[in-house]
Structures
1.
Amino acid sequence: MNDKQYPPKEVCKRLSLSYRQLEYWVLIGVVRPRLEPHGKKQYQKFSYEDLCFLKEVKALTDEGYLVSRAAQKVRKLRDQKNNTQSTAHSLS
């Protein structure tokens, strides 16, 4: 498991997203970054899992999906995959 945390600037660079687009996705709840306090300020940090999730969402939005629908679809596919894996694991 990758425990690295990514700042918004790096997420935007890796996914070819604008900062404004990423902030909007956070605002509407597509992803919830961890808030890291530094004095009076708080900085957003994204996990590797967040990065992978956003990559899948971005691929769907590039195909024409609305961001909210893309996020729903990725979550549903991940849930199905997790359910299949847990069922297979419990049968073995």
2.
Amino acid sequence: MSAPNPGDEPLDVDQAKRSLEEILGDENALWTKITQTRLNEIQKIHDDYVKGNLGGKLASLKFLDMSYLDFAGRNLSQADFTGARCEYAILDGAKLRAANFYSADLRFASFADADLTRAVLRGSCLRGVNFTNANLTECDLREGLLMKAVGHGELLPVMTDAGTSDIDHAIMRQANLTDARVSNAYVVQTDLSDAILKNARFLRADLSHANFTGADLDGCDFTEANLTGATFRGAVLTRTVLDHAKLDGANFVGAIVDSVEMRGLNLATVRLPKHIAKLDRELRIIVSDHVRWLTSAGKNGTQANLKEVNLGGLDLRDVNLSAADLSYCILKDADLRDGNFMMTDFSFADMRGANLSGADLRGAKLQRANLTGTILNRTRFDTLPVGTGGGGSVATNLQFAKLRNAKLNGTDLSEANLEGADLSRADLRNADLRGTNLVDADLTDAQIEGAKLRTADLRGAKGLPTD
């Protein structure tokens, strides 16, 4: 179990009162409503501060009501939003590095693509906030208690009707929360799919029914967290700490679980991949029945259903599992050389280190499959003709697949769907990518010399050469 971080202990209310009394000693009304025009004036003075111009001043937006105002694209780094109300405000693409949103009311605000690196969001209300693709690296999202001095030195809590550290129903798809501190927070039913949560700390946080689909949880600490009903499909849990976490009904099928600390867990109701010994028939019989089903056009035999089964390390050379269901399967280090997998469903499959040399994956479904370290020599990903007389074709689906460091030089990927796929550091030299969907794909440090990119859809693709 990792050593506790001094900043992750439950909040000491008395200490919070003492430390905030000096900061929040103003006896004026709690919130002052301002207009878009007034915000623009404050922004100009802040811009002068950033540029070092005479008369410039760091923006102080404490206890201002800025609900529904437009902050899109602005630079308000280091600005103080303590206790501010920003419900439904638009902050898309804003630069808010090290900004202080302590106990601010941010319900249903939009921070899509915003830079919140090292921002303080402690105790803020984030219900329904949109953090899609936002940078929340080293953010402080722990619980907090905001107090306000009134007459005779009395301190009263300043609370939204939703409470503190309320992050339920927030949207954090593809957000970067590396090294974020979210301990003791309330993050119920939050969408964290494809988020980067490396080394984030969720000690004692309530994450019940949160969606971690495809998230990177490397080094994440969930000690004593409530993960009841949480979904981890396609998530990567390496060096993750789950000590004494509550996992009732959590779904880990399709997740990568390596070197995870799991002390004091009750796994009775956790959904995990099935062991091969629990299949109703031997694997060789399932494959044989599947071939009969294929050759008889479905009149005889039975279509293979190996969904959620652990087949890691097995020898499946030359197997014919075309059109079979291997979704959420574990195929790590499996030998799949020269196999026939046309139109096979590998969605969310763990195929790390598998050998797919010479395999036919035309028309296969590989959404969110993890192919990191997979051997792909002569593997076919091109379109699969269907029908007769030019009746059309089926493209291979690799949406959000992980293909880091993949050796795809010279591979025919024409018309394939690689939307959101991770192709960082992949070898795509001389690959055929004509008509390929590469929307939002990550091509950082990929080798693309000689690749045929004509008619490829590259909208939002990251890492492409700029010259």
3.
Amino acid sequence: MEHKLTVCCGTSCYLAAGNRTDKLEELITKEFGDKVEVVPSGCIGQCMKNEASPPFVKFDGEIISDATNENIIKELKKRLT
């Protein structure tokens, strides 16, 4: 894997997006092959630090807010193409 996507599964993010990790992994594999590893995580602590909306993910150390599956794929396309 070349890149790491950490998916916050803390309470706020879970409630905002539900547990979408399986579907997200499927979408990412379809779009990017094995270039991106999807890793579920406990709270990544962004709700208290960030004025943006959950759910949050961390891609190669950079936070992405309002991280719906659609927004994540769009952001990864920007960064990987």
4.
Amino acid sequence: MENLKHHLQHGGRLTSRSKQQQHDKDKKLVPQAILLLIVHGLFAVAQALSGTFVNVYIWKVKNDFALIGWFALATQVAGALTFWLTGKWVKEHNKMMVLRLGVSVSALFYVLVLVLGKQSADLVLLLGAVQGVAAGFFWLAFNVVYFEVTSPEDRDLFNGWSGLLGSASGMLAPWISGLIITRIGDGNGNGSGYRWIFTISLVVFVIGVIVSFFLKKRKLSGTYSWFYGFRILKVKGSLWRLTIPALTAQGIREGVFAFIFGILIFISTNNETKVGNFWLYSSAVALISFWAAGRWLKPRYRKHSMLLGVIMMVLAIVPLFWKVNYGTLLIYGVVAALFFPLYIIPMTSRVFDLIGRDEASAEHRVELIVIRELALNSGRIIGTIIFIVVISWKESVMVMNWLLLGIGSSPVIAWLFMRRLLTDSLISIDKRR
């Protein structure tokens, strides 16, 4: 926060040379940021171990794409409501308790799956709601603490490491899960293999709760304004008028792509090990790409790097029109993983730069993070509803391909709205209004 105060005190008018010197000097994560990364890493490992296979688990009980969509939709709606309602507690009470609740409720989700067994497919709305509440608790608290322990100088570095840890988790955890399910046995979705990975996830979540107690309790400031995020959209010339549509477009892709490819790979191969291998290969590429982007991606390159990432992520879907099999799905996974960091790091960093652009924005960081997450979840809900409607109307390979291409092209809209914010400093943009 000292860097933010320095920036504000000088009105943002630093020379290019001094900016670069300050950037090079401060591009190092503080201990609390490192600890937050560890908690995030544990959360990512637990989710990666079982997240993909929960959808496969449900699919094996009832071969129904729409059912998987309803599960995702329940998660997204519950997550959006949790973000908005929990904002008051995070700002006025104890945000670290909310972070721990997020990890704890995630553990509860897997307890329910273990207890319900095959009945999980009949209770997808309940399970989705529990998972959404867990995600809302965790990500709201995480993003607020993330804002507080980083600054514009080290935010790209933190996001690079965060992506690297997420990629490492996504690389190894699903691969291990696939091997466990295949070798121990799945019993048509109710065998010991699935019980093992859900139990392991439960244990990792418990460890995450324990580690979170080493994070310092953050200072409280101000009173939560329920509709602050909505009011700023009414302000003429507000930069959030560009940001919110961009975040919504980002969410459209996330809402569907988070679950569909694991199912498509399982349908193509009927083998959980292949599902794990897919995430092993694609996440290995993402790991290297996130590391490189976090290390070398400079703020002045954000606009063009995001555009390149968007174009390549869309083009990665095209091979599926030739044939949908493990090979073409893997091509998509590798290409998308390679270029995804170029898209998501500038997007995330710039939005959080906007939250910390002045004292008024920083003071309302909780409300702004809530509106950010509401925009993302709105996009996810839109994307998932489109998926459910289309797949319920007609289920075929060609329809699925066009659906994926349409939904997968939403990052283009995100870039169109963000490109102005990625060109210059936020202060320079304000002066031109």
